[in-house]
Specification:
heterotrimer, A alpha/beta, B alpha+beta, C alpha+beta, B: alpha+beta, Glutaredoxin, 5-stranded mixed β-sheet, 6 strands, globular, C: alpha+beta, 2 domains, 7 helices, 11% strand
Amino acid sequence: MTHYRFHILCCGGTGCKASNSAGIVRKFEAVLKEKNINDVQVITTGCFGFCEKGPIVKILPDNTFYVQVKEDDVENIVNEHIIKGRKVERLLYTDPKSEGHVSDSKHMGFYKKQMRIALRNCGFINPEDIREYIAREGYAALGKVLTEMTPEAAIDEMTKSGLRGRGGAGFPTGLKWGFARKSVADQKYVVCNADEGDPGAFMDRSILEGDPHSVIEAMAICGYCIGATKGLVYIRAEYPLAIKRLQIAIDQAREYGLLGKDILGTGFEFDIELRYGAGAFVCGEETALIHSMEGQRGEPTVKPPFPAVKGYMGKPTNVNNVETFANVPVIYLKGADWFNKIGTEKSKGTKVFALAGKINNVGLIEVPMGTTLREIIYEIGGGIKGGKKFKAVQTGGPSGGCLTEKDLDTPVDYESLAAAKSIMGSGGMIVMDEDNCMVAIAKFYLDFTVDESCGKCTPCRVGNKRMNEILDKIIKGNGTMEDIELLKNLATVIQDTALCGLGQTAPNPVLSTLNNFYDEYVAHVKDKKCPAGQCKDLLSYVINPDKCMGCTACARKCPVAAITGTVKQPHKIDQAKCIKCGTCLDTCKFGAISKQ
Amino acid sequence: MAVKSLADLKKMSSEFKNTVSLRENGDNVDSLIQIKVAMATCGIASGAKEVMDFYLEELDKQGIKAVVTQTGCMGYCYAEPTIEVKLPGKDPIVFGHVNVEKASEILEKYIKNGELVEGIIPVNYETVK
Amino acid sequence: MAKATIKINRQYLKEIKEVCESFNYEKGQLINVLKKTQEKIGYLPAEVQMVIAEELKVPVAKVYGVVSFYSFFTMVPKGKYPISICLGTACYVRGAEGILQEVERQLGINPGETTPDGLFSLDCLRCIGACGLAPVIMIGEKVYPRVTPNKVKEILDEYRK
């Protein structure tokens, strides 16, 4: 069937393209043609995620991996590798540790910045078929825990692994389980928090859609550890596919006797039910979540009492997030010591991020703790879209902060991100470029918090609203320097006095942009300018009469007929009519329109 | 089909390893063409279902023996819809931006002739097994 | 609130009662009852909330408190083609605000409203998880990827025929 002896794969990712991968492809084609070789195919691929060593050339079927290939190397590769079957040693990747050449890309896992633990089955198995999960050691961890370990020993193992809550706060999972175990009650509950509320984060949805059984298995293990027979998944109603797959998985697990009474003949009983979240960000907070599950308004209450003592229906309840649970089965299969070796001193294992925004390779990624932001953005993410300049990366969503150029070498772990004045958060990671106004971003997040505030405590209900009004004033060009001071004061008061985590962290996006981009605030206030050209009230679109060819393209596209002029004569924009949609700027082929 | 003990589960696991992707085909799994379509919300939003339907229909029509299954998110959101194709005896290859037209090109060129087509996404992660 | 005069048709009344029964009239299942009812009727006007309150034996104020708390519930009927503009962060940084303004301009309604002809309703939502396709809008179940303001009219026209 195969007519090709070799395939030559050239990386066509943005990074490699910038270092002339297209020229290399052309050169390969030319050399092969010249030598009359017909059974070799040259093909351009997507990003290898190894841009620092680009351009990358990979040869199939032997998986040879050449790095930093230049046009001049092409002939050499064809002569040696393709014709004589000898690898070109000098182009192979050199392992910085052993200083030896690595030729086979299968043995260079270390170059791959990503490591999939929580996502191990996503994209591999059919999530609607329990047999595929079982084939990949599914439910073996549950079996091991039930037959070989006491609950105490299992909790110890979890503590030893160093796993911390992936919902954002990073509380040690083993410790949390231990608290729930110690509470004495006739009924306890295991709750999975699948109310993924950070706008721009979709890790938990992807796990539930791609590998629901790992969460079910982990919940059962947790049930055994803390002494609970009932599990509840609190899931957003906005995730219909995740709900459907989770329900199918629960039904299949019951059918196979992996949920229900006498699991695996050990006498252990556990079952899971779904509860729907109905669109309230605050319900990610565990006390609010519990109220919501009880059918009430999802308002948080003061801790203590902690859910481990008094939670759902007043009974001891352990709440963990989806990604935390997804890590659990592997930890028992491979052991705490194995997990413990991954990551940094205080942050073990990996973290999943939804990498999005102005980045080339938008994606769902999983990296060992300690990977730097630079590696994530420039290697895995393939750099900034459209060759624009990197400005900031936001982590932690509405509770987090912005990190800038100076922070790019910060390793991603709970402590380092906190030291850089952001947070790990649940895993949203949004990259922004020079066209994004940081004042507008702060307002965007505050809009969100104001919308989502449950209204129970005054600092959050009123304070955030006032902050939002001040930001609105600044964005519209009516702000004063006193406003900036007031903003700072308000932010600190809210941080100190709000009732729950949502309120206390709501000012973070404002404080972090004030810290890192103070000049941008000042520009809005003093010069009445938006340096990024995003705030509409502070900019106008103008046509440069010297460049305008009078092609009428913009006038025809303008949705409000604000552009007038005769054919082949410079056109004009009526500022009173202009709604600043930017369509003309995108339409103009002559670069005659600019934002001012 | 209840699993009654850990021993049961272990037996089942090794059985499924060989047979699960086979469905009713009865052959050795490695001798079959396997296509996985990433069908998470974003994949479906960008047309993964149409691609899956295309393969189910077209492979059947042309009498090509293959296993087409759905799977979760592969992580390459920028390139949805994504599919993974594994030809017998070869490493699996992931293709991105697969609309029905691309799916047809992959079928004609890669699946039938082993000729690669543009749109390959190199796997850039390691997975624990 | 012993005898609320309820102005909803019998069919709906029957369906609401069935939903309440299917959850065993459990007070703790209020959110699920509301969700199911909204799936059947399309929205949760005051009259419907009164019936549910009576069935589950909880104060109407509590039902209203829950309905108004969660953004998933609506008290006004949606349009034939409900439009949702994703305002998640990824869509926002890629220009979702401009899309929203254009849709508002085209339809002459604000988020939370329905056009007078009942054809479209407009809502904002936070992230459907299609960040790779940002900015996106949803009309019914269909997702439109990489929308720009000048594509909006064309998209809406598909539904106006």
